């Protein structure tokens, strides 16, 4: 099944709508990550309409970035979108989205748009939010789906929808990975085999941090369950359970899980990757609060995002994993 290709908002608005409309926004070069978003949209509006937008937005590319070489594969995109369950691919020209040329009035990303990705790519999030706002108006969806891989983008879109009263539900979808752990991205095709081996350090670093976090949380959970008494350890030891006694003592003294330890575990992997050939050139490693993308302290509880960005050769890649720190015992 191939999705219907529409080029203008007028064509899209002329369609008779049945049920709710879900939109998946892309810049094309669709891969399994996009297909997962489309399938999720189809599941959320089984009797409605799924619209996939394909638009390479010039506003969110800075000087020296890869606007000109960004892959454009519309015929293949139509096939991928259709197989995944899309009804329509809306692929407007720049003149359709920006009829008066580059817009003078734009959405500002505010303070959250100046850190991490915003610091590395000044103006990127202003351009991203401006085109998202435009496409939400042009497609008029009931819900819009975005990938968790672009966690800061997702947080900003949610913030914009809430702060500016957009009447649309914003849905986040978990990151899709290749078999070796690399997060799916249209930019992966730029990597040579050697560069790809180095690039695996991004996901490996995140998984190392995630594993350290899981171990800490498990230790803390046991600490809450085991009585923190010397008598308990002595009783276990008297029964010949010296290992259990040692464990009981250790967990009784366990401190809350440390964000610093999570960062350190991830950093070790990235430091090793910096010595590879070709090397990984780290942009940032951060453990942040998803509400504003500020760095979390060691007393943080609740949700967090461990995020990384790096360059391998000429290709810049990002990745992240969500974490939840439990309340201190």
From TrEMBL:
Pfam families, alphabetized: Pantoate_ligase
Enzyme Commission (EC) number: 6.3.2.1
Residues at which ATP binds: 27-34, 147-150, 176, 184-187
Family: Belongs to the pantothenate synthetase family.
Catalytic activity: (R)-pantoate + beta-alanine + ATP = (R)-pantothenate + AMP + diphosphate + H(+)
Natural source organism: Streptomyces tagetis
Superkingdom of this protein's organism: Bacteria
Binding residues for beta-alanine: 60
Protein name: Pantothenate synthetase
Keywords on record: ATP-binding, Cytoplasm, Ligase, Nucleotide-binding, Pantothenate biosynthesis
Record-listed (R)-pantoate binding positions: 60, 153
Oligomer status and interactors: Homodimer.
Annotated metabolic or biological route of this protein: Cofactor biosynthesis; (R)-pantothenate biosynthesis; (R)-pantothenate from (R)-pantoate and beta-alanine: step 1/1
EC category: ligase
A GO term from the CC aspect: cytosol
Note: The reaction proceeds by a bi uni uni bi ping pong mechanism.
InterPro entries, per the entry: Cyt_trans-like (IPR004821), Pantoate_ligase (IPR003721), Pantoate_ligase_C (IPR042176), Rossmann-like_a/b/a_fold (IPR014729)
Gene name linked to the record: panC
Role this protein plays: Catalyzes the condensation of pantoate with beta-alanine in an ATP-dependent reaction via a pantoyl-adenylate intermediate.
